[in-house]
Amino acid sequence: MRTLIRDGMVWDGSGAAPFPAEVLVEGERIVRVGRGVAPDGDDVRVIDAAGMTLMPGLVEGHAHLSFCGAQRNTDLGDIPPEEHVIETLHNARTLLDAGFTSAYSAASAKLRLDVVVRNEVNSGRSPGPRIRAASPEITVTGGLGDENRLHMNRSSFGIVADGPEAIVQAVRTCIREGVDNIKLNISGDDFVPAKGGMTVMREAEVRAACEVAHDFGRRVASHSRAGNAVKRAVQCGVDVIYHCEMADAEALDLLEAARDRLFVGPAIGLIHNTLHEAEPWGITKAVARDLGMERCLENSQRTYEQMRKRGIRVVIGGDYGFAWTPQGTNARDIEHFVRLFGYTPSEALQCATRIGGELMGLPVGQVREGMLADLLLVDGDPLQDVRLLQDRSKLRLIMKGGALHKAEPALNRR
User: Fold this and answer.
1) What burial class does residue 385 get, using C-beta atoms within 10 Å of its C-beta: 0-12 exposed, 13-18 middle, 19+ buried?
2) What tens digit of pLDDT does each residue of 399-414 get?
3) 78 Cβ neighbours under 8 A, 6+ residues apart
4) At how many degrees (to 10) do helices 345-352 and 332-341 cross?
5) Cα(125)–Cα(120) distance, rounded to whole angstroms?
């Protein structure tokens, strides 16, 4: 079956203005984009896109598919593995329902959760986005993800390893078990005793992790809030650096010099929602201020304004999966990029599509001949109002690899 989408406006993800065109899909690929496309034969499914915008499927650049509404880090460790697999599968479908056809994982709460769900989705048995599966967050004693105490062992989302040899073993173990990405917690976080301004993983540890991961052909992502943690990540070869809000001029210069090989992501959703929407979970505005969320937001705005000006590749993804950042609300990040960071709608949408596709390392994120047919048909023009993408009723069609996950417009066979 071939699919022809006609009479709509196409925003192709390149940054160019929308244009009227027909798009022909054969199998899992886009084969024609242009005017007057009228394929012969009876095996053509025609979709009328009048009044709508056809665009690439969204790419979640900081996914936590196995984060299931946690209020505390230990909530994720407390979920039995059998239930955790089911919840992660549910989250994968939720993300696809929200228009995200690809997800680059920033950490799995248990070692094989991402791997198993990725394989299940790839088998075609369960719906979900394309997934780059991650390891748990490899951390050091006392770092983010280490919830142990002398009198009690507690699991969260971390693997604790100290020293280069232990780090190497942890990385190799994760790779053996099938992950695509390794995650390192180089800095702390304001929610734990090792604060976000601390750089707690040593250079030799980071360098060892990157060398081994790259030897196996895997990418490395890092949790790097502190300026020194950003510098360490760049200098040691980390490929995807998350947060970065405390990056100073030296760190920004390093990022800019390496902009052709790496990606960054602010994870602004968690910061914003902790400051403004977490009161039902006991985090009042006063508590959020005490945690440093106002300062964190201000630093993020300053840093990502510079990232934009310097042409550093930035992806959306805001630590969705906590109680106050529910799965499926991920498209809010696009609005945050416009409202908080000064991106134009087109620039923010490119972060969510084309640049995300580059992060995935797959031919996705653009409406272009030869690309995988991961497409959204939006009722309206998201360039005029990016909030449309937060409304699932406005997502009239969701296509992944040429297969229709959702199709509300009238379909006509001919």
Assistant:
1) middle
2) 999 999 999 865 554 4
3) 155
4) 140
5) 6
Residue identified by tokens 């203005």 is 17
Q: Residue 311 has what DSSP assignment?
A: T
Q: How far is CA 137 from CA 107, 113, 164, 308, in A?
A: 6, 13, 16, 28
State the average pLDDT over residues 175-186.
Answer: 98
How far apart CA 339 and CA 176 sit, in angstroms, is 42
Which residues have a Cβ under 8 Å from the Cβ of 72 and sit 6 or more positions away?
A: none
Give the pLDDT mean for 145-159.
Answer: 93
For the stretch 47-74, pLDDT in tens is 999 999 999 999 999 999 999 999 999 9
Helices (H), 197-292: 203-215, 227-236, 249-257, 268-276, 285-290
- Name the burial class of residue 282, with classes exposed (0-12), middle (13-18) and buried (19+) by CB atoms within 10 angstroms of its CB: exposed
Residue the block writes with tokens 């959020």: 288
User: What residue type is assigned to position 235 of the chain?
Assistant: Q
> Distance (Å, rounded) from C-alpha 249 to C-alpha 88?
39
- Per-residue pLDDT tens digits for 126-144: 999 999 999 999 999 999 9
Answer yes or no: pTM beyond 0.70: yes
Of 100, 11, 105, give the one whose Cα is nearest residue 58: 100
